[in-house]
């Protein structure tokens, strides 16, 4: 029977290489994938909440108008990701992987924080702006994180550690899709109801930023 966790290597590797810090760094780096997966998944179901539609005057829009606004909110994030991914590689090359990832995390947290300023009076502007800024951080992080993990991973367990990145992405996506079901069932329709899913973005972003200084070089 095949052992999925067996270390397959064609040359002897010192046992000291397989230390807890390598695994810890890969797990912390995978929180970048959690914020990527979450940010990609939660927005659609958040915009479908009645509390979100009522707050921003979308409840009385035609389906075509609402679809256009939803597409704009999603595409601003994708645009930020595009330019962030282009900036990620030179950022990592010039400043180093750790500092590049740290800057990416801070940019993402900044963008997520800007989104929380949105309300009925300010309109959707902070969400548009925050999505662009968060996308810049996500784009750079999605470029640098797999690169960093592959560079610190011993060859025999490189696949396992890089796989944590994909696992984190799926965990973030799962939470992003289900969180709005949770708030819709347990929190009355209000400003707080739709704001909670937006605020949860800060959790993986903050954990990622806090953990980066402890990364191996």
From TrEMBL:
Q: Name one GO molecular function term.
A: carbohydrate:proton symporter activity
| PROSITE patterns named among the record's database cross-references | MFS, SUGAR_TRANSPORT_2
Key word rRNA processing present: no
List, alphabetically, the GO terms of the cellular component aspect: membrane
The transmembrane segments are 20-38, 99-118, 130-149, 161-182, 194-216
- Keyword Transmembrane helix assigned to the entry: answer is yes
Among InterPro entries, the record links this protein to: MFS_dom, MFS_sugar_transport-like, MFS_Sugar_Transporters, MFS_trans_sf, Sugar/inositol_transpt, Sugar_transporter_CS
Q: What is this protein called?
A: Quinate transporter
Which ranges carry the Major facilitator superfamily (MFS) profile domain? Answer: 25-217
Coiled-coil spans in chain: none
Origin: domain of life: Eukaryota
User: Pfam families of this UniProt entry?
Assistant: Sugar_tr (PF00083)
Q: How does it sit in the membrane?
A: Multi-pass membrane protein
Keywords, comma-separated and alphabetical:
Membrane, Quinate metabolism, Transmembrane, Transmembrane helix, Transport
Q: Which reaction does it catalyse?
A: myo-inositol(out) + H(+)(out) = myo-inositol(in) + H(+)(in)
Q: In which compartments does the protein localize?
A: Membrane
